[in-house]
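WARN no homologs supplied; continuing
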Amino acid sequence: MTTTKNDVKSDIEIAQQSIMEPIVEIAKKIGLTEDDLELYGKYKGKITYEAIHRLKEHDNGKLILVTSINPTPAGEGKSTVTVGLGDALNQLNKKTMIAMREPSLGPTLGIKGGATGGGYSQVLPMEDINLHFTGDIHAISTANNALAALIDNHIHQGNELTIDQRRVVWKRSLDMNDRALRQIIVGLGGPTQGVPREDGFDISVASEIMAVLCLSQSLDELRGRLSQMVVGYTYSKKPVTVGDLEVEGALTLLLKDALKPNLVQTIEHTPALIHGGPFANIAHGCNSVMATKAALKLADYVVTESGFGADLGAEKFLNIKSRAAEIAPDAIVLVATIRALKMHGGQGKADLKTKNLHALQKGLSNLKKHMETLDQFNVPYVVAVNRFVTDSAEEIDTLIKWCENMGVKVSLTDVWAKGGEGGKDLAEKVLAEIEENTKEFSPLYDLSDSLQSKIETIAKNVYGAHEVDYTAKARKQLDQFEEEGWGVLPICMAKTQYSLSDDPSKLGRPLNFTITIRELKPKIGAGFIVALTGEVMTMPGLPKKPAAFGMNVDDEGRAIGLF
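OK structure emitted
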C-alpha cells in the first residue's frame, strides 16, 4: 500500500471500495446475538436495553483515551488515530472496541469535515454516519424544539408558573451552522400567535439535551436529568425547570431510541460504538457514557476519544465524564502532527510542505503544555506522531528525539495509509504503559471547591492563564449559582479550540494572558455549569465556500464529495 501522490485516494473512495461485514457478524465477535440488536439496515444496529442491562454483570476492560494538541487547519487526525489504534490492538489479538462520537451535520457541510477517521482507518458506513445515521441527533433536535414549543405555549396559555419571557434561557436548535438564527424574535403576528420575545438557536450538539443523553445510563436517569434542566426564570428570578412544566416524560419518549448505542465497524471490521456528539468547545465533548461503559463490558480494551485538544475534551473527560460514569482511562494517547506543530510555530498553511525545523521547534511549546496538563491527572500517556507524506525525515527525527529527551514514550504512526498495521508500534507502547502503570488517577479539582476556584484551576493549570477576569454579569451569576446550591457541580469551559487562551489567533503556548469569563450557564440536567469565555459561539456559521458546494450523489445513490 503506497502513499505516493498519484495513488492517494480520497477517504470516501477508500470507504466505498471497502467490503463491510453484516453487523450481526460484527456483533458475534463481542458476544452479542442478533436479538441484542435493533437493525438499521444491514450494516448498522442499536444495542437493546435488555443487552445493556445484561452486560452489567461483566467485568470492565481497559480504557484508552485519545486526545491531541490544539487543532489547526493543518489537521491532527485524532479520529484517524483512534480507529487505527483500535485496529492495531485487534491485530495484536487484543479483543478491542472503539467508542466515538457521532458527527454533526453543521461542520460536515461546513468546513471541519466528518468524524469517522480517514484513509484506511475509518468507521463504516462513513456516508451514513456523517449524514443522518440512525437519527439520534434529529431526535435530540426534536426533543429540544418540543420543549421550546411547550415553554411558549405555557406562557401563551396563562403562564401559571409566572415565567418571565425576558428570562427564558432555553433556545431552539438546528443541526446546522446558521449564523442568521443566533438571535431571533418569536411570537409576532398578534395575540393568537403567542407572546413576542427574543429567542435564538443553538446548534443541536450544543443543546443540553445532547449532554444529558450522553451522560445518562438508563431511561430513568435520562428522565431525571431532563426534569432538572433549567429553562428560564420567574418574575421573582427563581429558576423554572422541565420538571416544573411536567414534560420530562414526553421528552424521554422522544429520546427512547436515541439513548441506545449504535454499533458499526471499521474497515478492518473492528466493532465500534458511535453514539452522542457534544462539541468540546461548548459542551463536554465525549461520546455517551452508555456506549463507553457497554464497550468496556464487551471488550478487553476500549479506545475512545474526546473532542479537540487536551485543554478541552480531555480535561472535560477527566473532570466531568469520569466522575459521572465512575470510570477513568488506563492510558492516554496525545496526538500531534508535524504540520500542526509547524503552524503553532508560525509557519503558514500554504508553506507546510516546506521543511522548517525552526517552526517545528517553536511549535513544540504547545505539545509540551498538553503533556504538562496530562501529568496533573496521573494517567500514563504516549505521544502519537500522526505521519503525513510531506513530513521530512529530519523533522520526524527532531520530534521523536525531543519527546525521548523529555522522557515521554513516543510512536510514529502511519494509520491513514496502512490502517492497523501502521499503529502496531503505538499499540504496543500503550499496552506497555498500561501494564507498567503505578499511578492513581486524580481529577484536577474537588467538587466541594467553589465555582470560581474550579474555573481558575482550569484556566491556570490547563490553559496556562496568568489570571481570570469576570464581567459584572458573570460575577453576579457566580453568587447566584452558589446560592441555588449549584456550586458543587463541575465546570464545563466554553472556549476556542484553536488556542490555549480565549483568543483563537494566539497559537503555540501563549504567556501572560488573561481568560475572560463573560457569562455562566446552568446545565443542571447535564450536571455542570458552563463558563463562556471570549467570543465562543453556540451556533457556528458557514465559511465563504462550504464543503457542501462539492457534495452530490450519483444515480445509484452513492455519495460524492463527502471528504
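The first strand starts at residue 37 and ends at 39.
OK
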